[in-house]
Amino acid sequence: MNFNFVIPCLLGVEGIIADELRSxxxxxxxxxxxxxxxxxxxxxxARVNICSRFSERIQLLVGSFTAKTFTELFEGTKAxxxxxxxGKTDAFPVKGYSLNSALFSVSDCQAIIKKAVVERLKLKxxxxxxxxxxxxxxxxxxxxxxxxxxxxxxxxxxxxxxxxRLQAMGAPIKETLSAAICSAVxxxxxxxxxxxxxGSGTNLIEGAMMVKNxxxxxxxxxxxERFSFIPREVWTLERERARAQIITDSDFVAYGSDIDxxxxxxxxxxxxxxxxxxxxxxxxRDIKDFAPRSEKGTVICNPPYGERLLDTSAAAALxxxxxxxxxxxxxxxxxxxxxxxxxEAAFGRKADKRRKLYNGMIKxxxxxxxx
Length: 371
Prior knowledge:
Elements: E1 3-8, H1 14-23, E2 27-32, E3 35-40, H2 42-51, E4 59-66, H3 70-78, E5 94-99, H4 106-125, E6 139-144, E7 147-153, H5 175-184, E8 192-195, H6 202-211, H7 232-244, E9 253-258, H8 261-274, E10 280-284, E11 297-301, H9 312-325, E12 332-338, H10 343-347, E13 353-359, E14 362-369
Parallel strand pairs: 5-6, 8-9, 8-11, 9-10, 11-12
Antiparallel strand pairs: 1-3, 1-4, 2-3, 4-7, 6-7, 12-14, 13-14
């Protein structure tokens, strides 16, 4: 059975997600602003949930239509084949959003969509009432410029929740964004990775998992594992496929340091849970004492900044210090994510390349120095 899917995403990572989907054998991949569309069977559904490093969640597209009135919304929803997915006892809550559309009341849209799905299922199952005690089929709706998309979430908890980070320090970088940065800087197995302000270790862990080809979703569960139209063996086979592709003989090493001893303890535990503790070393060290252990290296860091942990003057002073420490050298690249438009001035030189990304809802730039 073939399905259409949508991955909602923050601006800046659409292309990375699209490339990843193609590598996972998804079909009809199309990147748009804020989302990526693709198609595939139940194996692709499971594979992308288990293996995607950069996606936040995978949504199954039930259908799309134009609606400018509540009547059109009701009839358009009711016309879709909900019975192909939702059983007699399944739960099907509804949530979503509306932007730049005639139907702007989210709560009214939510109620009308719910009613329309109920009416459709009543006709198909010949029952007057739904107990909704079974597996959850979370219905998502998006209405943009009067175009309605109705979807079912297949992931459950966001895909950034890999399962290894039980604790995090203040304002941590999201796992999916960290993975996207590792991809953007073209981290390779023969590189030595450094994060001199590693916090709970996310950049180092995501980098290690990427170069070892460890699927980030191997140790977690997904909503779609309880969906009746997906055979259980699909998930077993896709997990076996992912495990078989793990690279076990990599020479990759990474070094993390931080001034905060508690953060380092959390980072060590996170690395153990992620299965990459064997290739990451942590030590307590101030960034001013940054001491590389290799002739070449890749630095990725997410320094504290004005909107996060430091006031703007302290952040600027830190950037200046970083500019003096991260000196241009053959075989070295320095990659820093920051929302501060004055970063380059404080750092002391213009980036060789900049890439716009979002850390949560904060618009940032990835400043890349490699020359």
